Amino acid sequence: PHGHWHYGTNWPHHGYKKCGGQQQSPIRLISSDATGEELHLNFRNYRKPIKLAYIENNGHTVQIGFSDKFIITVYGSASNFKPYIFKQLHFHWGSYNGVGSEHTIDGYRGPLEIHLVHYNRKYSSFDEAADKTDGLMVLGALYKISSRNNRFMSTVMSLVRSVPKYKDKALILQSFTLRSLLPSRLKPFFVYDGSLTTPPCYESVHWYRMKSSFHLSQYIIRNNENNYFRLVFKNTVNIGNAQEKQFRKCRSGDNNRKTGLKKTISNNFRPLQATNERQITISA
Ligand code: B30
Ligand code: ZN
After folding, report:
1. ipTM score of complex
2. H or E segment at 105?
3. N or C: which end of the chain has fewer CB within 10 A?
4. What average pLDDT does the chain have?
5. 226 confidence band (pLDDT: 50, 70, 90)
6. 68 Cα: distance to centroid of ligand 1 (angstroms)
7. Nearest CA to ligand 1 atom 12
8. Which of 53-57, 115-119, 217-221, 253-257 has the highest mean pLDDT?
9. Is 190 left (phi over 0), alpha (psi -120 to 50) or beta?
10. Cβ 88 under 6 angstroms from ligand 1
């Protein structure tokens, strides 16, 4: 179900034509080059403990999904409501602490980047939304190594510690909140039109990145009718070195001698893509 793409190969050359598009992710985010705008975020249910979650090693990342439906309303100054429903979160990391995040912020590349993937509520499912130009919204945050474990991340990492080492193994998790995985201050954040960072690289993601503050149950995002967007928070989230190392223990093969028992998942981040003519917005 996951195709045969790998990191480090030329995706457009291997049949993933959209990966050669003009609005690809990730990109370099630079505060001083971004256009300031009044933006608000409205999160609903982000602090609600999730009772039933599953964590899964799908061979190229660790992914967490929930049984609950989290509805996120996204709107901005001049627009109508755009509710997005949370689908899954996953991580990108490196083989050492100097690399791992997909986006860079003012030249900083973190050891880990989290993606919270949402789909537009006007579509009946994630799959239906995924290739639509207004289908997806991904929240991203970069992490930073700290001498102390983050207490919220500890809860989450107890889950990640139990992430099955091998591909296609899943586990049911203890409860935790989505909010605990994001920076304490959600503003400022960056927003731009982008794509999935893995094949098929659909340009259906508006990215927003949070620079710093967060208001409990709600958030707001502006969205052009015809674009995906990505949002990336400017502030980082702390993670302990030992916690970070847990990610590197995951293996991309199944538990079988012949099929890459020794291969671990790391450096599962895509190189920076050209910004081209895109505007990058930063929340005021
Ligand atoms: S990302 O946030 O831009 N890194 C998908 C969602 C978000 C991102 C990248 C990809 C996605 O849903 N892709 C399609 C489903 N697949 C298939 C795949 O290509 O390989 C992902 C999956 O596991 O669930 Cu593996
Ligand atoms: Zn991702």
Report:
1. 0.94
2. strand 104-105
3. N
4. 80
5. very low
6. 20
7. 130
8. 115-119
9. beta
10. no
**CB distance 191 to 278 below 8 Å:** no
Name the phi and psi angles at 125, rounded to 5: -155, 165
pTM score, whole prediction: 0.87
Ligand 1 near 138 CB (within 6 A)? yes
Sequential DSSP letters for 26-82 = --EE-GGGSEEE----B-SSTTSPBS-EEEEE-SS-EEEEESS--EEEE--TT---E
Contact (CB, 8 A) for 145 and 199: no
Amino acid type, 83: P
Is beta strand 169-173 parallel, antiparallel or unpaired with respect to 136-146? unpaired
pLDDT (tens digit, 9 = 90+) per residue, 96-124? 999 999 999 999 999 999 999 988 888 99
Going by C-alpha positions, the residue among 96, 133, 79, 141 that lies closest to residue 115 is 141
Alpha-carbon distance of 202 to 213, in angstroms, equals 30
- Local structure of 233: helix, strand or coil: strand
Give the DSSP H or E segment for 154.
helix 151-161
CA–CA distance from 185 to each of 155, 189, 236, 261, 264 (Å)?
Answer: 19, 10, 9, 40, 33
Q: Measuring from atom 8 of ligand 1, which residue has the nearest CA?
A: 196
Nearest to 243 by CA among 180, 152, 164: 152
Distances (CA, A) of 196 to 40, 115, 161, 247, 269: 24, 11, 27, 21, 12
